[in-house]
Specification:
heterodimer, A: 396 residues, alpha/beta, Rossmann fold, 2 domains, six-stranded mixed sheet, 16 strands, 18% strand, globular, B: 315 residues, eight-stranded mixed sheet, 12 helices, 8 strands
């Protein structure tokens, strides 16, 4: 790229928080119905969308629902009637929605939701961690965890294509506050090009008077299992769609991310697996520092959390001596400490692999995660610490 | 009320609620469903809360609904219907909804309305959605096996308000759901009974017409033979006696003005035309334990409620 072109490119970028990036993506996707309820740190998404709607820049109906339960219910209703929909929430709001999350996937509705991830009460905390997102693990939603405002913008647009192709709901999550309220340069797409990327297609099963169908039927033991199995199958096969949509997006707009992201994994002896912006950013920095100190370190980011990208991850872990998972959530009372560690360990077992690992809990309720903490993780791995849960940053 | 139907032969012939569903013999709500769908016609989306009508009509892979139908959960029918309404309005503007003007009707029981669904109902009314919300009131959680709700009347036996040695039936009075809805200043709200089909059908028509302006509400009395403990051939009689004894007054709230409908208006004008409450209570097992004193108390409440409504109607 010439210097002039680089400047031109820089000019095309706006300074946006991840929350505003979501709002711009929703506008580009020409969403029809938005239903949201305010909650920190999500609120600035809906504030920005309200501006777009009230200025006539987004031709959508913004439903000012009286709770997050109703937010999810309203977008389920709108999606059932064939509309392109959006909602967003965090923390307690996601917990309140929980019942309807299962219904959105069970009804196979392409709902798209943004979740700046936040800690859960009690004690009440408005700060970031991934306790809320991790609690939705078994709801049948495709779940991305993005790591930059640019990726948030791109992923929300990709999410519509993935949702409308797989007929599954899609959640795009990212760090509450550390990303939701942090300004970064974001390159926006030409909105006409986004419309071409997201063409309107009539879905097969929607509420239409000329072809009446019953949605949300009552299933007895003779049918319930088969219907739920279809969700499981759709989720498993969605990884291919996620990959294809990412590649197609890359061709159209010049940015793609893959399912997992790796950093200096080519010759790594020790790997740190992380998700989200702050944890993976620190992990990458720590890899450089650890390598300066003579440790062959590498980092892996889970960009897609559900469906869990086991095959891709195992390929990366095949050559390492040990790994650590940084979890920003606690799986209370579990054998593995953190939810992602449990999944990595399960993936290894199911893949017939035996790689020792450390389960590291950090960044709970936005406890500061320092690069040096992550360097310490590499040092622990090198020193032979294995198969235990480490509560990093905890004051005892 | 807009009088579309003057007599029984004016009522729509087309059936949109199929027979063969699994509701109990003599089900009051099923009678309501039949007339709601007939009156609304095929260009209608029904959003149903969890409850008797949902469970008995949609057992996969069969359905009784010949109109598009959505069930999401128990407490959120009004929210889901808000989404359907918004979707139809916006996608119509964008040329993506090609079915023309379409009614959006919520159907929910007393549990789904008085209790768990009250918040989403209030939100939908406040936001002014173009939705007709129909409450079919059988006065308890019948689907789960006759538990008391906010719509259960005082002293009624239910499985969670048993007639014990210390406490005999439900202690509290039935919630004034119409009062709550009217407090939202909606264009139209009315009570109706499955015993008075012409009145009910005209109210459905009127409500749907006003729904173009904003949300409307119908409270339909729909007795439940197993829940109220009476023989299944007496459902319509039970509903009629609820009206004729003044237990369930028929009235409308039309743009701020309350109007009593016959026969309620007649018994307010001439108290002798109101049947004694005992006639409504006496053949129902749920009230079999009532003493004369308790019946007297309930009768006083009925009279007081009629006087209250008459005052509102005079404003």
């Amino acid at each position: 790229m010439t210097a002039a072109a680089a400047i031109q490119k820089a000019k095309a970028a706006l300074a946006l928080t991840s929350n505003y990036a979501v709002a711009y993506a929703v506008k580009a996707a020409d969403v029809d119905v938005v239903a949201v309820y305010p909650i920190t740190p999500q609120t600035t998404i809906v504030e920005k969308i309200a501006e777009f709607v009230d200025d006539g820049e987004l031709n959508a109906d913004l439903i000012h629902v009286e709770s997050e339960h109703s937010a999810m219910s309203a977008v389920v209703g709108a999606a059932a009637a064939g509309a392109r929909v959006f909602t967003a929430t965090s923390s307690q709001g996601l917990e309140l929605m929980h019942e309807v999350l299962h219904i959105a996937s069970g009804l196979r509705l392409p709902v798209v939701m943004a979740v700046p991830a936040r800690a859960i009460s009690a004690p009440i905390s408005i700060h970031g961690d991934y306790s809320d997102v991790m609690n939705t693990r078994d709801t049948g939603w495709i779940t991305y965890i993005a790591s930059s405002a640019q990726e948030v913008y791109d992923t929300v647009i990709q999410a519509y294509k993935v949702a409308e192709t797989t007929l599954l709901p899609v959640m795009v999550s990212y760090d509450g506050f550390l990303m939701s309220h942090t300004t970064e340069p974001v390159e926006l797409n030409d909105e006409e090009a986004v419309k071409r990327f997201l063409p309107r297609r009539e879905r097969p099963n929607v509420l239409r008077p000329e072809k009446p169908i019953t949605m949300g039927a009552f299933a007895m033991p003779d049918w319930y299992y088969e219907i739920k199995y279809q969700v499981q199958e759709a989720l498993a096969s969605s990884l291919k769609t996620i990959e294809e949509v990412d590649a197609e997006y890359g061709k159209a707009f010049g940015r793609s991310y893959g399912i997992i992201q790796t950093y200096r994994m080519e010759d790594a002896d020790y790997a740190v697996i992380a998700y989200g912006g702050a944890a993976f950013g620190n992990a990458r920095e720590a890899v450089d520092v650890a390598r300066e100190r003579g440790i062959r370190a590498g980092a892996i980011r889970l960009r897609v959390w559900r469906p869990f990208p086991a095959d891709r991850l195992l390929k990366q872990l095949a050559g390492v001596k040990a790994f650590a998972v940084i979890d920003r959530a606690i799986a209370f009372g579990s054998p593995g400490g953190g939810p992602a560690f449990i999944d990595v360990a399960t993936a290894l077992y199911m893949g017939g692999m035996d790689v020792p690992g450390l389960s590291v809990i950090h960044g709970i309720g936005q406890r500061s995660m320092y690069v040096e903490d992550f360097v310490k993780v590499f040092e622990m791995l090198k020193d032979g610490e294995r198969n235990k849960v480490v509560y990093m940053g905890l004051r005892l | 009320m807009k009088v579309v139907y003057k007599a029984i032969w004016d009522l729509p012939v087309e059936e949109l609620f199929a027979s063969g569903h699994r509701a109990c013999a003599g089900c009051g709500p099923a009678i309501a469903m039949r007339w709601i769908t007939k009156t609304a016609g095929p260009n209608t989306v029904v959003v149903n809360a969890t409850g008797c009508m949902e469970v008995t009509t949609t057992q996969y892979p069969e359905t009784a609904w010949m109109v598009p139908y959505l069930h999401v959960a128990f407490e959120n029918a009004a929210a889901a219907a808000s989404g359907v309404d918004s979707a139809i309005r916006v996608t119509s503007k964008k040329g993506l909804w090609r079915s023309g003007k379409t009614n959006v009707i919520v159907i929910a029981g007393d549990g789904g309305t008085y209790d768990i669904g009250l918040q989403s109902l209030s939100g939908m009314l406040e936001r002014g959605h173009h939705v007709l919300y129909i409450l079919y009131d059988n006065e308890a959680y019948m689907n789960t096996g006759i538990q008391r709700s906010g719509g259960t009347p005082r002293y009624a036996w239910t499985t969670t308000t048993p007639v014990g040695r210390a406490i005999r039936g439900k202690i509290q009075a039935k919630k004034d759901i119409m009062g709550i809805v009217m407090a939202h200043r909606v264009p139209y709200a009315a009570t109706a009974s499955i015993s008075n089909i012409i009145d009910m059908s005209n109210k459905i028509k009127t409500a749907l017409e006003y729904t173009e302006e904003g949300p409307t509400f119908l409270h339909i009395m729909a007795p439940c033979p197993p829940g109220w403990r009476f023989p299944e051939e007496r459902t319509v009689e039970a509903a009629r006696l609820a009206v004729e004894t003044g237990y369930f007054p028929l009235y409308e709230y039309d743009h701020g003005k309350i109007r009593l409908n016959p026969p309620t208006s007649n018994m307010v004008a001439d108290p002798k035309r109101r049947k004694p409450l005992r006639e409504f209570l006496k053949f129902q097992g749920r009230f079999a334990h009532l003493t004369d004193a308790e019946i007297g108390e309930l009768e006083k409440e009925v009279v007081a409620n009629l006087e209250y409504l008459a005052k509102l109607a005079s404003l």
